[in-house]
Design goal:
Elements (H helix, E strand, L loop, with lengths): L2 H4 L1 H31 L5 H13 L8 H8 L9 H21 L5 H17 L6 H32 L5 H41 L11 H17 L2 H10 L5 H21 L5 H16 L6 H35 L1
Helix pairs in contact: 2-3, 2-5, 2-8, 2-9, 2-10, 2-12, 3-8, 3-9, 4-8, 5-6, 5-13, 6-13, 7-11, 7-12, 8-9, 8-11, 11-12
Protein name: Inorganic phosphate transporter
GO cellular component, one term: membrane
Membrane topology: Multi-pass membrane protein
């Protein structure tokens, strides 16, 4: 494969895709580290390094089912063009920057899906949409936080029963150690699901340029580059969102942080295995709400949670609209030059 021979535009778009991947890590670092930082098990600097490492090595543990879904299961690979990819990435990046500045934990994943849909619809209308993949992704918006909520809630009750005779000091010491494991698990899940979305974008871009031959697949250099970009973005952290996720929704102890991260990790592992591009933001938020509700419903700051939910609802149409505008601008630029 000779990217230079394929053209500078292809190289530029791959660079934009990797920039989105980096921003995804920056934006979603909070998902991996918010609980472990808020419980003071790790300092922020150590926590982001811990998360970045496990984000990077996630390709060793998961197949590429999510990459295949994003690459050919949201919009048809036949309608993909440089302008479509530019529009999708422009919409996703713009929405990520807006929500990052506002400190709102919206979904980078669904910003990208919305971007693909917006640019795809702008080019080919509804005929270019792969509805089975879209419906699977939309279902994940509801299922992933719900499953994270339920699993975290069940874990809290199970662990409370198991440690009912333990002293508070013993329980705190035990779960401070266990939270290192749960944070690693969640970071693995994040790296396994989220990096694959950018892999799918780059792979379908290469496919549209005839760089993959007759069969769609994800080259290994794409896998390792996307994992590295996501891990590097995580190293820079997203401190505004860490504050929202780690302390504004509910207060967490090490035991509750372990339950939230473990419940979220199990949810992401399942989704990645079956190829559903879910939102790690939605998942960990549902899990955090679950552990808060295990104490009492009033322990959850529902006004903050409701603001997050509204961001979820708005993400797909907002990123899609911005993507359609970017697609239109790319088409105008193409005609002008």
């Amino acid at each position: 494969m000779d990217l230079l021979a394929a053209g500078w535009l292809l190289i530029f778009l791959i660079g934009v895709a990797l920039a989105f991947d980096f921003l995804n890590g920056l934006h979603d670092a909070a998902n991996s580290i918010a609980t472990v930082v808020s419980t003071r098990v790790l300092s922020p600097r150590v926590a982001v390094a811990w998360a970045a490492f496990f984000n990077f090595i996630a390709f060793l543990f998961f197949g590429l089912h999510v990459a295949n879904t994003v690459g050919k299961g949201i919009i048809s690979a036949d309608i993909v063009s440089d302008a479509v990819i530019f529009g999708a990435l422009g919409g996703a990046i713009s929405w990520n920057v807006i929500t990052w500045i506002a400190g709102i934990p919206s979904s980078s994943s669904h910003a990208l899906i919305g971007g693909l849909l917006g640019a795809g619809l702008a080019k080919a209308g509804f005929e270019g949409v792969v509805w089975s993949g879209v419906l699977k992704t939309v279902a994940g918006i509801v299922v992933s936080p719900t499953l994270g909520f339920v699993l975290a809630l069940v874990l809290v009750f199970a662990i409370s029963w198991l440690f009912v005779r333990a002293t508070p000091a013993f329980a705190d010491s035990t779960f401070r150690k266990l939270q290192l494991v749960s944070a690693a698990m969640f970071s693995l899940g994040h790296g396994g699901n989220d990096a694959q979305k950018t892999m799918g974008i780059i792979a379908v871009l290469l496919y549209s340029h005839g760089q993959l031959g007759a069969e769609f697949h994800v080259p290994f250099w794409v896998v390792i580059t996307c994992q590295a970009a996501l891990g590097l973005g995580t190293l820079f952290g997203g401190w505004r969102i860490v504050h929202t996720m780690g302390s504004k929704i509910t207060r967490l102890s090490p035991q509750q942080g372990f339950c939230a991260e473990t419940g979220g990790a199990i949810t992401i592992f399942l989704a990645t295995h079956i190829g559903v591009p879910i939102s790690t933001t939605h998942t960990i938020t549902g899990a955090i709400v679950g552990v808060g509700a295990s104490r009492r419903m009033s322990a959850v700051r529902w006004n903050v949670a409701s603001r997050i939910v509204w961001a979820w609802v708005v993400t797909l149409p907002a990123s899609g609209l911005i993507a359609a505008l970017f697609y239109g601008a790319a088409r105008l630029a193409d005609r002008a030059f």
